[in-house]
Amino acid sequence: MNENILICDDNQLILKILSKFLESKNFATTSVSSARDCLKALSKHSFGTVIVDISLPDMERSQFVEQLQKMANGARIVFMSSNSDENWLRNEGLERYPFFQKPFSLSSVVKSIQSPWADPAQRVLIVDDQELLRELLADYLRRHGIEVSVAHDGKEAVKLASKQPFDSILMDVRMPNMGGIDALKALKEASIYTPVVLMSGYGDVSSPEEARAVGAKDFLSKPFKLATAMQMLDDVR
Fold it and tell me: Are residues 230 and 163 in the same domain?
């Protein structure tokens, strides 16, 4: 039997569907229908994962989430909602946690639970001057439980990396102000040895061997699959 999962939702149908599906995947489940019962269960039992509706009616949302984080005791937290609450999560500094907007696919829930990135302590820095790619990558990684920071060029990346630790950095080669290769040199000069994966759609760097020659751990050629980027970041950390 795999880990025990706590499911918290006031919708009885969702509780039943999630519980039945996860048990078919050999997980043990406990289901509760209120925020207070969720916290009560956490105070009495140990869980590997808590899947919780972010807007349970019996407790104010911010208060509930604050208590949930304190009482999770190392459990992964996966949020879900029938509303679009991602902006609220970002404003509250909770964007590192996986979030599913109802309706969602059951398989995506299992992926989040089993992801090697489900530990919210994991931190990744994405560096690219293309805003669309930055946001696509950030959104994808956050949905898999990764804490993400973004920078628009190498200079900003070095500044961020000098202020807080990251488990890995995904950085474009060609950017204004400071490109990826110069940023690698600046990181080394600052004695920051965070693993870096370079990415490029040009011929500046065209292979993992060339990337390693300039100090990176690996290389991604644009365009690439988001899942490939996540796996590579996991491999290099």
Answer: yes
Q: How many domains does the chain have?
A: 2
The answer on 130 and 76 residing in a single domain is no
Domain CATH number, residue 94: 3.40.50.2300
Q: How many residues appear in the chain?
A: 237
Is residue 71 within 8 A of residue 41, CB to CB? The reply is: no
Share of the chain above pLDDT 90, in %: 44
Question: Which SS3 state, helix, strand or coil, does residue 126 take?
Answer: strand
Rounded-to-integer distance, Cα 2 and Cα 5, Å:
9
Phi, psi of 121 (to 5 degrees): -75, -15
Tens digits of residue pLDDT in 61-117: 889 988 998 888 778 888 888 766 777 777 777 766 778 877 777 877 777 666 544
pLDDT in tens, 103-138: 777 877 777 666 544 454 578 999 999 999 999 998
Distance CA 89, CA 217 (A): 32
Q: Which domain covers residue 48, as residue numbers?
A: 4-114
* Spatial separation of the C-alpha atoms in residues 118 and 103, rounded to whole Å: 21
Give me 113's structure tokens: 């639970």
Q: Are residues 49 and 17 in the same domain?
A: yes
* Higher per-residue pLDDT: 233 or 82: 233
d(CA 222, CA 149): 20
